[in-house]
Amino acid sequence: MKSYRKELHFSTKTRRAYINITPQVEAALTESGIREGLCLVNTMHITSSIFINDDESGLHRDFERWLEKLAPEKPYDQYDHNGYEDNADAHLKRTVMGREVVAAVTGGKLDFGRWEQIFYGEFDGMRDKRVLVKIIGE
Question: In angstroms, rounded to a whole number, what is the distance separating the alpha carbons of residues 13 and 97?
Answer without folding.
Answer: 21
